[in-house]
Amino acid sequence: MKILKPKSENEIQDIIKDAVNAATPTIVRVIGSNHSWSRAIFDAKDIPKTTNVKFISLTNLRGVEKFEPTSEQTATVTVWAGTNIGKDPRDKDSTLENSLTYQLDQHGYSLPDTGGISHQTVGGFLSTGSAGGSLVHSIDEAVIGIRLIDGTGTIHDLTEKDNDKFLAAGVSMGLLGIITKVTFKLQKKFYITGIQTISPIKPLSRDINVGCPIDFFGIGDKDQGIPSISEFFSNNRDYDTDYSRILWWPQDGLDRVSIWKAKKISDNNGPIDHFKQPSIFIQFFGKVILAFLNVIEFPGKIYNKIAAFLLKNFSEIGVEYFQDRWWNGLPMDNDICDQILPVAFTELWISFDKTKDVMNKLQELFTNEPKSVGNFITEIYTAKKSRFWLSPAYERDVIRIDPFYFLGNLRGTPEDHFRFYWNALKEYNFRCHWGKYTPDEYGNEVPGLFSKYENWMAIRQEMDPHQIFVTPYWRSRLTIPNIN
Ligand SMILES: Cc1cc2nc3c(=O)[nH]c(=O)nc-3n(C[C@H](O)[C@H](O)[C@H](O)COP(=O)(O)OP(=O)(O)OC[C@H]3O[C@@H](n4cnc5c(N)ncnc54)[C@H](O)[C@@H]3O)c2cc1C
Q1: Whose CA is nearest to atom 32 of ligand 1?
Q2: Ligand 1, from 11, 100, 128, 468: best to mutate by most atoms within 8 Å of Cβ?
């Protein structure tokens, strides 16, 4: 399909007006860096043959438009929405020099956080409510302005003062309009210093060769100085977890966890030592192992034993220290190659106060349903509460459960694997990450999960009265009534 690459806001307005006036039903969708589940952007399989699609990329609308220091410590930046947060290796026009984070750092400033990768565009990252792993820092708190062209071709400059439309647009999946520019408030640039440990998940021990320095399932062990997982994430006793994330290898006989954590420091007091991901060669080896594990029969516990034996190579018990510039260190997974290890995700955001129960539920799932373990990992991290109405962290801090599904698997589907998690964690009223897989029945839950759902729907209808941004996927997930 031809992708339109407008060079100005006027061209976007023309595309929208053409779609509204077209004789044949026409929808308009934007693609950022294409890191979301295809259906969340636009998937031709979802679209009736009688509907035309105008598919837009903002690749010609990238770059910093305006940078303004506001004090010794602060500044604001207005950036075109097609700008990548960091360099996207899949896009030949994306460079380190034209990425947002690098340019901010060159000016001496920073965003509060990044995701685990920074390849996304500014527009795409915001639109799905994406977030880095932190209960302390959040990117969406830094957003102070959103410029958007709505479904009538009208331009809106939304700021915190506009309140409702701003809060509705902050996470809107391209369903209110096309975001062309975003303004962020900035803070001084910083560094991070951190450590990753890989250990068994049980028993508890401060010695990672023996056991786990975090209590995943209980209330911690004060005598040994071991925090519960909630205490660890919320950094309530200085566990140096300004930023953190955990990967759990739940295969029977392996049961390892990799705990990555970093604290913010204003000055770099040592050499830059970038966090090291497995080499490309090891990633390729990992791909072969994952594919092999997927094709062999699934005899439950025996399968898990084989998986544990092979996967041990990728989760060796040990410690790695790192110290880095914020923009290069926070996206700790940038060096994992999407082409070698393509992954699908579903991500369930659950109220943070349920963390211990959720961990125990996962443990129960892995024990009772060996197939739910699969051949890969589950990521566990957090997000700080958000003011944006449709953010899955709206008004509550969350624990995020993010099972990985290797897309090189020859048997099964991501949905088959994710179904275990959707069923097991249903009782916790999870909200889904909008850029990742969601279950078909999610549309029935959404109105009850977001207290501002009706307000968001009213603003959506006002800003896109002809429904030119609505795909069948989004109609089903948000219960958007059909106007035809
Ligand atoms: C390897 C990997 C790691 C990831 N890590 C994280 C993580 O750490 N934290 C996290 O929260 N998520 C993470 N994600 C998910 C990712 O952040 C989201 O999928 C994000 O939306 C991708 O941004 P994008 O630029 O690729 O946008 P796309 O995926 O291309 O688009 C996302 C949505 O935004 C819409 N959109 C894009 N641009 C605009 C615009 N200018 N105006 C209006 N609508 C627009 C699209 O139509 C679509 O609905 C990860 C994904 C992958 C594949």
Answers
A1: 124
A2: 128
Q: In the numeric block, which tokens belong to residue 295?
A: 């094709």
Q: What is the pLDDT of residues 311-359, one digit of tens each?
A: 887 888 999 999 999 999 999 999 999 999 999 999 999 999 999 999 9
State the alpha helices, DSSP H only, in 62-107.
Answer: 100-107
* Cα atoms in the 13 Å half-sphere on the side-chain side of 152: 9
Which atom of ligand 1 lies nearest, measured to the CA of 338?
Answer: 1
For residues 218 and 183, what is the distance between their CA atoms, to the nearest angstrom? 42
- 3-state DSSP assignment of residue 26: strand
The neighbour count for residue 84, using CB atoms within 10 Å, is 27
Ligand 1 centroid–CA 245 distance in Å is 19
**CB of 294 closer than 8 Å to CB of 311:** no
Atom of ligand 1 nearest to the CA of 122: 25
**Closest CA to ligand 1's atom 53:** 35
Structure confidence by residue, pLDDT tens digits, 372-426: 988 899 999 999 999 999 999 999 999 999 999 999 998 899 999 999 999 999 9
**Sheet with strand 26-31: strands edge to edge:** 3-4, 52-57, 26-31
| Residue 161: both structure tokens together | 């003062």
- For residue 85, report the distance from its CA to the centre of ligand 1, in Å: 11
Where do the domains of the chain lie, and which CATH numbers do they carry? Answer: 60-189 (3.30.465.10), 191-439 (3.40.462.10)
